[in-house]
Amino acid sequence: MDQLNDSMVSEFVLLGLSGSWETKVFLMLTFSTLYLGIIVGNLFIVILVIADSHLQSPMYFLLANLSLNDVWVSSTTVPKMISDLLKEHRVSSFCSCMTQMCFIHIMGGVEMVLLIAMAFDRYTAICKPLRYLSIMSPKLCISFVITGWVTGVVHALFQFSFVINLPFCGPNKIDSFYCDFPRIIQLACTDRDKFEFVVAANSGFMSMGAFFLLLLPYVFILITVWKRSSGDLSKALVTLSAHITVVVLSFTPCMFLYVWPFPTSSIDKYWFIVDFAITPALNPVIYTLWNKDILVSIQRLYKRVGYDKFC
């Protein structure tokens, strides 16, 4: 805590988006709608998985946890971004900035492990169907979730341990909507090279490592389905379309934000909108429209509600 007290910077100014009053109102309404969609859509999936016994399988257990994670990560950034749009002086205290950064990276670690777990689940279901239930046991599913949280916490604390010791004595303007380690390090009054390298190596290695781990099971799945379909690769792609779409949406912003994490242009901040607002809002839509079990479950729920009203 001594570092916090010794720091001359007590708050950071978030530049966010500039524009006319009408533009800011439009953006506020747009992001508010997206955030409402994130909350309603993802919580609907969680409730559906809990309420419908047909969905109480390893895949949907992991999907429900991914939906909850989308709610948490969006809630750490989007509400403040919405409220800041109509403010002239957009600031975040030093402690709030540090807290937000930690939560973002914890949730990011959880999401990556969950996506890897979901890829492994699909690999087991398609390539080893007879052993699926014995491999994807409740104990293994819970272990995946716990591993995700442990990975996220360790990753965030590793980054935090470097940033908290840096002196901040002058510039305090961040050209973004939120606080994050790469941009905060650029404001430090010290030789930043080694800290930039460590943070880049940590976040970049984690993002790239998780991405390649995700590729492996999907490659095996595509090969297996392709062989079973007598060379018809389109069937394999349809089988995995929802999962592949979510992976692309989740990892594309990470590649731009963290593999090359020290931006020279303000364009990187727009990847934030994709990562924390658009992707979590689209995930429920993707898994609903491209998942027969979810659609059937919604129909059952609709009929049940309609029957109860009639009675």
Q: How would you describe this protein?
A:
With 311 residues, this protein is mostly helical. It is 75% helix and 3% strand. The model is unreliable at 1-7 (pLDDT under 50). It has helices at residues 2-6, 21-51, 58-75, 78-84, 94-127, 132-135, 138-163, 181-185, 193-228, 233-259, 268-289, 292-310, and strands at 11-14, 91-93, 173-174. A 3-stranded mixed sheet has the order 2-1-3.
Strand content: under 5%
Q: Mean pLDDT, as a whole number?
A: 81
Structural class: mainly alpha
Q: Could you tell me the radius of gyration in angstroms?
A: 21 Å
Biggest sheet, spatial arrangement of strands: 2-1-3
Question: Total number of β-strand segments?
Answer: 3
Q: Uncertain regions: pLDDT < 50 for 5+ in a row?
A: 1-7
Biggest pleated-sheet summary: 3 strands, mixed
- N- to C-terminal separation? 62 Å
Task: List SSEs in N-to-C order.
Answer: HEHHHEHHHEHHHHH
Principal-axis shape equals: globular
- Binned, the helix content reads over 70%
* Individual helix count: 12
Key terms:
12 helices, 3% strand, 311 residues, single chain, 3 strands
Question: In summary, what is this structure?
Answer:
By secondary structure, the protein is mostly helical.
Describe the secondary-structure layout:
Elements: H1 2-6, E1 11-14, H2 21-51, H3 58-75, H4 78-84, E2 91-93, H5 94-127, H6 132-135, H7 138-163, E3 173-174, H8 181-185, H9 193-228, H10 233-259, H11 268-289, H12 292-310
